[in-house]
Design brief:
Length: 179
């Protein structure tokens, strides 16, 4: 359970960094259509939020209204920041309330295409964290295309900051780049 608790806190931290990076480029760049599945930076991060919300519903046994893995109207970046942080905080509280037997409980649900799914609660959490990491990587690439250097949001950097560890990546980049 300690690992899941770290992972959902990492996700919140990394999501916030990524959204701040998206907010640091001109809005036209953040909304610029690119050759990627979700069209632009903001829409890609909104997809992460939608999937987080869908799996929140699965975890709580409640219905959701999504029929697609994104929304027809993409929220403004400021609204998206609030919505994602609210969901990230929900996952932290949820994981903090799980015990080992609850984490191993199987949750049955339907994917958006109607097919049946079954994952343990911890597998759902791992999917949510991993899914967001994947899409933050895509947004990082879009930021590079826009001429911006995204903030390093890797798990070891989070752990170094969160737990005051003396971690420095083995790269040819000065340590000051990580402060």
């Amino acid at each position: 359970m300690k690992t899941l608790a770290k992972l959902v806190r990492y996700k919140r931290w990394a999501d916030a960094l990524m959204l701040a990076d998206v907010g640091s480029v001109p809005l036209a760049e953040a909304e610029r259509s690119r050759a990627t599945r979700w069209d632009n930076m903001i829409r890609t991060m909104n997809h992460v939020r939608v999937v987080d919300d869908i799996f929140r519903a699965h975890l709580t046994g409640t219905a959701h209204s999504y029929t697609y893995r994104n929304t027809d109207v993409t929220p403004a970046l400021g609204e998206l920041v609030v919505l994602m942080d609210r969901l990230d905080r929900w996952y932290i509280v949820y994981v903090d309330g799980l015990d080992d037997s609850g984490a191993d409980e199987i949750v049955r649900f339907r994917f958006l295409d109607g097919s049946e799914g079954a994952l343990t609660r911890q597998e759902i959490i791992l999917h949510v964290v991993n899914h967001a990491t994947y899409h933050r990587g895509l947004v990082s690439d879009m930021l590079y295309q826009a001429g911006s250097m995204p903030t390093t949001n890797d798990l070891p950097v989070f752990l170094a900051e969160a737990f005051n560890r003396n971690y420095r990546p083995v790269m040819n980049i000065p340590a000051t780049a990580f402060t």
